[in-house]
Prior knowledge:
5-stranded antiparallel sheet, 14% strand
Amino acid sequence: xxxxxxxxxxxxxxxxxxxxxxxxxxxxxxxxxxxxxxxxxxxxxxxxxxxxxxxxxxxxxxxxxxxxxxxxxxxxxxxxxxxxxxxxxxxxxxxxxxxxxxxxxxxxxxxxxxxxxxxxxxxxxxxxxxxxxxxxxxxxxxxxxxxxxxxxxxxxxxxxxxxxxxxxxxxxxxxxxxxxxxxxxxx
Length: 187
């Protein structure tokens, strides 16, 4: 799939040039266990997020981490989808086909030049947070960060969702979320 990483080094060919292949060092953090209780409803998680945000502003750093940031993006994505598409999302497994449909609609807007790259990047960031929470709630796993972005870790396999979602938003229908979710469930 091009999304999973079990190794730490990647080799990249130089587009047919005679130069030696370059080596890219992928630097991935240790897996951070999820600290947030994803058995809660969207409303409860929203209240939790708001409460913790106030505590962070007051100097409490307990939830000042990447996982908390992904939850914020996820909640923003839910609001965006409700406002633009009038579709209510939650974090249950059954939402994955609707999530794919939303990404398809955004992709179509981008391809028809109705949406610019900046909007597409913003949607990709928020959609990544959303899909991360769906995965943590229903499959499990932990949070990882790397020099290519954040991701989820499931049973030792790293999945960098932003890249996959970005490809989907740019029109790559083979980068769909339903097949990815099903593959992640099998890990």
